């Protein structure tokens, strides 16, 4: 059943290594069929290049397996919590992509520093509070989803306008209208995190410019009437 | 009409992903035919690998579409403002390339720190002032161009000698005698931004050198009469 | 003899350049056959792409060569010290991979900052104390192994739970149940070191967010009823 | 004449882009035939992928062209100053490789921080003093060579033991017994500069470790009797 949904989710999962967002099996993508209330998700621990159509697991919104022989991603319950609470989203991605994860590890929101960010995320991508011991030791993956949904509610952030979150000491979850869009948003999140990290590095930029005479020498060695670089003249 | 110009602009746009300067559709290149007063530019939102000759849009210097079925890049008006004000330039590039954009997001000029910079840019690549609310809410892309032209005028910078700018909280615009040269200058801007960011990181370099005896051990393990690394002797 | 062991070690060594963990010949992998007490290891100074099955050197646990015409890796004695002391491990990797080595050069433990780390290493990956002059000038590679084993004992770290170490001013040694798992752990160590270095960079993140009006402009240029980016509408 | 020398220099130049050490034409390699007193060097401004055997320029030790129709690299005089002063070296490389150049731009020696450095360079790779206006405005490339040779003499550094230098506000020159070895040393210099830059970043590492309970959760989710990640059990 739902071969198209499974095919879409298969392809979206294979995009993760293609975009350099994952190492080994560290990521998973799901998509929901809202009409049928069925979610298709990557199986746990299967390498992307070995992943086949029939490996994709189908579950209902309570996490009951409807089709598939493999265990679903251990992050399934986090995905489901999003689908249950946010009715406009259709696809979810989880990765440990390097730059976004660095912000999660530092416990920092990814602030909107420029228009690249603004083109995709309408404000800071929030970093959640630390989870409590009870949440971690309880139904951990479900509680992760609850903490995220709570964070958006408490801060008054619309998940349709900011389709990503950083889980404290963990990494990003990203979503969109479908799995493919969620992957696209994951790529952008990583790009923006990279740029913002570098911008942060530049905060205390106090380094001196080069000597004017050396600037003259090199520019004029290549440009203007006295240039002597290359094979010209 | 102007098939050569369109072909040149097509190829120059395809260089952006080849040089790693863009993600998805985040960049555009144009070139002007000064004699005819016609500008060829990338259409908005079309992926580089799907871009065909007939997708390239031709406009006059007021932005009226002369040929082409697609919407031109939303940055068209910024390009045109350059062509109208700076008579020596023939090609313009806009990207969100990572390192240059980081400087734009930090609101910092890219200072001339070394001869790599000096070979292409005769002094700091300026970062513009922030745009006013009126400029942003008005004819935004045109106003972006005006703020850039103003920045060069106010600071007395010759756009032929410093063929690039960083737009505050946004990213770089780069130009040159034609589209191909503008792309080359974009590559160099990115390289120089990368080097300058790293040089900035080194400002407070206070880390200790290794022990002399360990230096001796390793150097002499591989070099001189008592070397024992590898298959030698 | 032990063709399977040699084949496994050959393939594991070739994974080092495939995963970008080595430059030139800067790394080596070994695996032990516990039943026979034989260790297979890369020969010293041979490039990975020239490495053949018969180049792999077999030694006993005292370092006596049992088979092979080439000198074993100069780090052999460090590997053997691990096999002699830690009975559960089956494979050892040494590299100078960039990010892990940076922590070794800074003389810092790689702290557990996030779940990527926690999925593989149960606590900080320790950096050893500096070696003494006597240790360096004595049987250096053996002493390196001893310092590492001492570090784990003194700190009460279980090498089965934290399968990696950073040798001060040098680089990482990594292990696992076999050579392949030790290589996998080496990849993870490098990823985690990269993420932790970036998280460190973010500590003093004080950069200002962009203007709200510019955020509005760019988000709404691409999303919602007034979007005008791309070819839509 | 000297076809072998020209072939060696041709191949060594083509290694520069292969190792990611150059952008466009920003680098050159030479080698000397000590017996004949002839130096073979890359022509100025010719892209590496267009470089042919007959493009290689032969000169004597005074810079007189002995064979070749093209202008030699503008850095020729710097190379020659090394060959005239340091009798053991046979090959010279100049690049603007990113990480080494960043140290040059920051005006900093590349200190020996670890054994990767010690395996190739017996102590810090020095950064030269700034050149004087007279030196820059005079016979610039020759003066560059003189400043480097002076730096090694003044500091008592043996160019055979530290086969590289950083020219202030410019970039690295690297040498070795022949062109191929000089390229190898250039690769190592870049690697070491990268590692040292990262080690510098870590100096003020004060970031907190993750919660113990989250560390427990994730490690034990994948390891030990209660693991539930993947398809096992």
CATH top level label of chain A = Alpha Beta
Sheet/helix structural class of chain A: alpha+beta
Number of separate strands of chain A: 7
What does the main sheet of chain A amount to? 7 strands, antiparallel
Function (chains A, B, C, D): Involved in the degradation of L-arabinose. Catalyzes the interconversion of L-ribulose 5-phosphate (LRu5P) and D-xylulose 5-phosphate (D-Xu5P) via a retroaldol/aldol mechanism (carbon-carbon bond cleavage analogous to a class II aldolase reaction).
EC number (chains A, B, C, D): 5.1.3.4
GO molecular function (chains A, B, C, D): aldehyde-lyase activity; L-ribulose-phosphate 4-epimerase activity; metal ion binding
Protein name (chains A, B, C, D): L-ribulose-5-phosphate 4-epimerase
Defining traits:
homotetramer; 233 residues; L-fuculose-1-phosphate Aldolase; seven-stranded antiparallel beta sheet; 8 helices; 40% helix; elongated; L-ribulose-phosphate 4-epimerase activity (chains A, B, C, D); Aldolase_II/adducin_N_sf (chains A, B, C, D); metal-binding (chains A, B, C, D)
């Amino acid at each position: 059943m739902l071969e198209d949904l499974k095919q879409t989710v298969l392809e979206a999962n294979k995009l993760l290594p293609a975009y350099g967002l994952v190492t080994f099996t560290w990521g998973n993508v799901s998509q929901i069929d809202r009409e049928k209330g069925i979610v298709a998700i990557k199986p746990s621990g299967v390498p992307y290049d070995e992943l086949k159509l029939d490996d994709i697991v189908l579950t209902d919104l309570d996490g009951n397996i409807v089709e598939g022989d493999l265990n679903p991603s251990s992050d399934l319950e986090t995905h489901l919590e999003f689908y249950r609470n946010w009715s406009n989203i259709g696809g979810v991605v989880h990765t440990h992509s390097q730059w976004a994860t660095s912000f999660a590890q530092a416990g920092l929101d990814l602030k909107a520093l420029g228009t690249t960010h603004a083109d995709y995320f309408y404000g800071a991508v929030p970093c959640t509070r630390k989870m409590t011991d009870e949440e971690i030791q309880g139904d951990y993956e479900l509680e992760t989803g609850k903490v995220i949904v709570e964070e958006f509610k408490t801060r008054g952030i619309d998940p349709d306008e900011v389709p990503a979150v950083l889980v404290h000491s963990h990494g990003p979850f990203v979503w969109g209208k479908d799995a493919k869009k969620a992957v696209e948003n994951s790529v952008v999140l990583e790009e923006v995190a990279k740029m913002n990290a570098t911008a942060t590095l530049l905060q205390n930029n106090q380094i001196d410019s080069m000597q004017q005479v050396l600037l003259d020498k090199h520019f004029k060695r290549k440009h203007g009437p006295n240039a002597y670089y290359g094979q010209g003249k």
